[in-house]
Predict the 3D structure of the following.
Amino acid sequence: MVGIFDSGIGGLTVVRELQKKLPKYDLIYFGDTARTPYGTKSKETIVKYALEDAQILLNRGAKVIIIACNTASAVAYETLKEKFKVPVFEVITPAVRRALELTQNKRIGVIGTTATINSSIYEKLLKEGREKIEVFSAACPLLVPLVEEGWLDTRETKMIVKKYLHPLRTKSVGTLILGCTHYPLLKKIIQPRIGKRVNLVDSAEEVVKEFQQFLKDNPKIDAELSKTSQAKYLASDVSARFQNIAEKWLSKKVELERVDVL
Amino acid sequence: MVGIFDSGIGGLTVVRELQKKLPKYDLIYFGDTARTPYGTKSKETIVKYALEDAQILLNRGAKVIIIACNTASAVAYETLKEKFKVPVFEVITPAVRRALELTQNKRIGVIGTTATINSSIYEKLLKEGREKIEVFSAACPLLVPLVEEGWLDTRETKMIVKKYLHPLRTKSVGTLILGCTHYPLLKKIIQPRIGKRVNLVDSAEEVVKEFQQFLKDNPKIDAELSKTSQAKYLASDVSARFQNIAEKWLSKKVELERVDVL
């Protein structure tokens, strides 16, 4: 079983991509909706939460873990990799690799939560990946609440996106990393506001490509993963609102099971 | 010592009011910043969190508890009152009383988080308080993130406030309850958008008035409260952002101590 977790429901963009590319693989998702969002919290708190989230998935039989949350990937990946024996995937390295492949003018923009941007992880990895890369970052803390409110196409969301992207647009970035699993839902309004020719990198798509490649390279691990097209959804807080958003995103009936994190 | 808690930093509006009206009373504040916000979560989760929050304050010597959070007041007050022996104050009843005093056209508006509005507590108490009252409610889930982002006076915040208030304005409410301790920070932009003649009821002001009256009526309890103008601030997650907002709101240096809720 493939275990996937997020601070809330943003990681369902990874689930959707996984079900598109690897529909037979059984998966278990955990959204820490009782403590969401992570992006405005401290590193210490996020690491503690991520360890608990991964443990919940392992207790339910996950054989690999995908951290479907940029914030947790940014600050907790190393700790999870050391602590757990199963393969752990994060959403940042695959997005960095893709951005470096795509860039032509060597000017790359990154948007994410406050915690992700403050970690400077994208900037560090992009500059390690290739010399002479210029990185321009912007924290966009209101985009997660806007997506969770379902305001995907309102005038207010468009104005706020424009405001957040303005500094990156003036820097003429050629590639923009959507450094939060919620942001692919805003792709249609981000694209015209950053510029039509700017390449958008979707971390949900990239982590699934990386995972597919890993399975090809590691047939023994692939063989251990059950493939009966089952999906199980866990959340630390279950409300009608989360249920509705999950069903809308995945375009199907979703049964959320409440699990306690404490 | 007076214990005050909130899901995060909104309850500091109650602290500010308390320090204005009762500057000598020692107080201890706890903001559950590691699990904020509460307003989008389920009743069960909020009750559990509120019990833990109050316990933290009691362990530190609080002799009375003020729930400085409308969401927790709406769904957890009864449980706290039963469980703990100290006097417990909540922010809803005082605001209801004030709104009933002020109303002339018997049309009262209420804005709050999704959890507060879904609880229907304001509507229930207003209608119990007086017959023939009409209540119009609107959940405003983006206002807390906007306040926490510090966007108190931006064009985007004004537009979003206008959008949320529009249905109440068309109902010609004469009085509007600010049913969230974050909202007093937006008073200046709320007033012109709901109408200049509409009375705004600030739950932070009202709960402190109620508490003052209680102390007059209960001199024995008043005598037990220490009065050395001390204030202690605890939070479950401490970040520069929270620190800045707290110092800006209270107009003084604030030392936040991190305490673990788990």
